[in-house]
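Researcher: We plan to redesign the surface later, but first we want a full-length starting point. Tokens attached.
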């Protein structure tokens, strides 16, 4: 049986042990904190907040954005043609694509793919309206399905190529029909058969516009 005296001695021992352990833990925490402070002092804060010329990354980014948004000479906004297509070649955002398609789902997909590639897109749902729009807007390229009402895609192509005002417009026949030879006979610059594929469509449009731009440069020289 434990006597009161022994109980008091044990309580005293436990109390001293706890106090000693607490002091040890506190001392360890102080040493860790001091070590962390010393490591932080070794890091030059200027290295993470300033560039080589003493400017901050934020000011450098702002300056870069400012210079990218203006031309070098006169401070006017830079031409959007400085941007590039997924293939890396420059394009002009004002390049206009007229899509002649009656299926709303295909129109939506074509708009998405062409907009993503940087082109402006207009639509016509029949050949007659497309001819009028082409004569008025003078797009850079017309993409037409053959099976459209009022004026089929091949007849549209023939009329565009017969008119001096529109004969320079590239025409891509993009159809569900296997009509490559008929499209060529109608004067089309290229033919693609559906189903719709983003890379085929955008790649063909880009190739036609590059060819058109090259021909224009040769005419000027």
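Model: Full-length starting sequence:
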């Amino acid at each position: 049986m434990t006597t009161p005296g022994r109980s008091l001695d044990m309580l005293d021992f436990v109390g001293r042990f706890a106090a000693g352990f607490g002091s040890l833990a506190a001392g360890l925490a102080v040493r860790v904190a001091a070590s962390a402070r010393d490591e932080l002092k070794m890091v030059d804060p200027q290295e993470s907040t300033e560039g080589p010329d003493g400017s901050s990354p934020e000011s450098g980014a702002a300056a870069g954005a400012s210079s990218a948004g203006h031309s070098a000479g006169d401070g006017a906004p830079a031409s959007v043609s400085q941007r590039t297509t997924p293939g890396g070649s420059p394009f002009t955002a004002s390049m206009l694509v007229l899509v002649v398609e009656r299926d709303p789902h295909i129109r939506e997909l074509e708009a998405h793919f062409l907009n993503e590639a940087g082109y402006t897109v207009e639509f016509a749902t029949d050949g007659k309206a497309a001819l009028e729009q082409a004569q008025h807007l003078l797009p850079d390229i017309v993409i037409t399905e053959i099976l459209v009402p009022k004026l089929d895609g091949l007849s549209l192509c023939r009329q565009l190529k017969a008119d001096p005002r529109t004969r320079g417009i590239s025409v891509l026949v993009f159809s569900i029909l296997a009509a490559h030879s008929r499209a060529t006979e109608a004067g089309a610059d290229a033919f693609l058969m559906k189903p719709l594929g983003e890379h085929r469509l955008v790649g063909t449009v880009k190739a036609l516009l590059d060819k058109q731009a090259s021909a224009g440069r040769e005419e000027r020289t």
